[in-house]
UniProtKB/TrEMBL annotation:
Pfam family, one: Ribonuc_L-PSP
Hydrolase found in the keyword field: no
Keyword field contains Cell inner membrane: no
GO molecular function: diphthine-ammonia ligase activity
Biological-process GO terms, alphabetical: protein histidyl modification to diphthamide
Keywords carried by this UniProt record: Ligase
InterPro entries per record: DPH6/MJ0570, RutC-like_sf, YjgF/YER057c/UK114
Gene3D superfamilies, alphabetized: RutC-like
Protein name: DPH6 ligase
Amino acid sequence: VGDVLYCAGQIALVPCTMQLVSGGVRTEAVVSLHHVERVLQAMSQKTALHHVIAATCYVTDSKHIPIARSLWQKKLRECKKVEDSEMTHDVTAVCGLLAVVVIPHLPRDAAIEWHVIAVVDDPLQRKHFAMKMLSEGFQIECESVESSSASCASIAVRLSLISPSASHLDLDGPLHDLVAMFRQAVEKLSEDCSASPLSFRAFFKEGVFDAEALQTGLQEYLEKYLGKKTPALILVPVVDLPGKEVVHITCWLS
């Protein structure tokens, strides 16, 4: 759509048989990510993984999180080497924001699936913004990436539990701060960027929060802070998230 490529989730199927590749999660991770690269190249010849602006990796075991992350970084470094060989000046490409989440099951009993949105733009000219704060026993981190064409952007917000006592979690303050920080990220987009927040997808760790309280709180603060620009709120319960994360939000702006 325009300069944006929306790629459906890819698992490690062998194209000629449509059966899952054998060899375990590492092999699956490489093959499924290779499928993503091939799809992007088929849609636009110059497109590579560093054109991805938002990525979600679904895995079925917490032990697979480091595998997914290290492969992602390795592939991006490979893109950067190709780029460096073509460039004479030292500029770093701004790559997409990755969310890794653990879910109970994937199609065909796959161990890993990659889902990406890419932009046919110049990753060297993208704008990147990051901030963090503490809020009542939680840490909130926020990152945004805006395409060089200013046609779209991706924002990630991570809520991590830093307080050792998790017996009673008061969500109200942290959710207020989280949405306030999200609004700040939206306001930091360049004047040329007319993108609006469309989908606000909140992956949350099951058993930590009451889903209804989470939904009510997020919806209330989104409407308070964003008014008519309030994105669609999508809650996704997950088995686990990296580190001490309890909520990982990915927002697509277009």
